[in-house]
Amino acid sequence: MTPSFPTTELETTELETTPNGAVTPTGPHRMRWRSGGAETTASATIEPGPPARESADLGRAMERAAAESADGVAFGALPFDRSAPSTLIVPTRVAQERPSTPLRRGSSRPAEPADYLAGVSAVLTRITDSDVDKVVLARYSDVTLHTPGDPLDIAARLADRNPSAHVFALPTGPDRHLVGASPELLLAKTGAHLRSHPLAGSARLTGDRAVDRQAADGLRRSDKNLREHRYVVDAICDLLSPHCRRLSAADPDVVSTDSMLHLGTVITAELDDPSTPSSMLAAELHPTPAVCGTPRAEAAAIIGATESFDRGFFAGAVGWQDRAGDGDWAVSIRCGEVTPDRIRAYAGAGIVAGSDPTAELAETEGKLSTFLAALG
Ligand SMILES: C=C(O[C@@H]1C=C(C(=O)O)C=C[C@H]1O)C(=O)O
């Protein structure tokens, strides 16, 4: 579907306080979204919304936001933490295009590789000693900026470089955008029809066709990668099936991005109730074992104890919903948080029994490069 917004200038001052007086949306902020070849650039107000764990409330809040928006479509961003507030993004009008400005970068500071290697080793010990099967461990890389970077410009460069990705620059707070090019569809809903395309199990692309073909064949046969992938497919099928009358998962295939090869599985389903809001279903699925692990709560606790930073909206979900509850939701990976003086890029890798810390570190480098390469 193609959300489209009025080109006429609408009033973009702050919206009214909601009836219970709790939330005042702020804005205007600028946003960009591109999926399935359709691109939207808009001004929007933002407001805090219910957390993912209150999925039914979130679904209702998105329905209200879609009804308020200029074109009947609202956008949302869910943080990694299921209990932290979401951000509801309500477009008000088409944004004025600004001339693009080159980024003036200062220093770059990747997170210490040694810390990541130690973290993977610690997680492997926890996997051996407990019932936890998979934990996704992440790291970040900071780039300081001499002049504020334009999040919409970065998204435009990501869109050029990643033609089939879900590309987003969504405001998540004052002077703060989540910007990225996600290859991973969490959930698309059109009427009763659902589609999900989880990715997990990865190899780095080299650019040498013969080597990459071998790596793709290796992925298809790798017990470690197939296991890592299966946890994600099973979790999505288990969580969707109570809502569906028909659900099927294809065999895993290999999907490529600009820098990576991944195992991917297409899951399709028919909803019992076609009016179920897509945001509610996305919130129930989130976070899948592709970005958290399995079992979910235990893996999230290990992540909290091992990672030294707050993931914020990285490894969350971003998407839109219209008045019928239809929408597209992507897993917020291959992304960074853009503030006026700093960009923080994130990447993670799934750790299971048999994972090699050095290979997982290299995997995060490959994943980070999708976002960092678009900074110019
Ligand atoms: C966590 C990320 O990617 C996820 C993890 C993958 C893996 O561990 O193989 C593959 C694709 C994504 O589901 C990321 O890009 O940061």
Automatic annotation (TrEMBL):
InterPro entries: ADC_synthase (IPR005801), Chorismate_C (IPR015890), IsoChor_synthase (IPR004561). This is isochorismate synthase. Keywords: Isomerase. GO terms for molecular function: isochorismate synthase activity. Its EC number is 5.4.4.2. It comes from Gordonia humi. Belongs to the isochorismate synthase family. The keyword Isomerase applies. Residues 114-367 form the Chorismate-utilising enzyme C-terminal domain. PANTHER family: ISOCHORISMATE SYNTHASE ENTC. It is an enzyme of class 5 (isomerase). The keyword Ligase does not apply. One of its GO terms (biological process) is salicylic acid biosynthetic process. The lineage of its organism: Bacteria, Bacillati, Actinomycetota, Actinomycetes, Mycobacteriales. Residues 1-56 are annotated as: Disordered. It catalyses: chorismate = isochorismate. Residues 7-18 have a biased composition (Low complexity). It comes from the Bacteria.
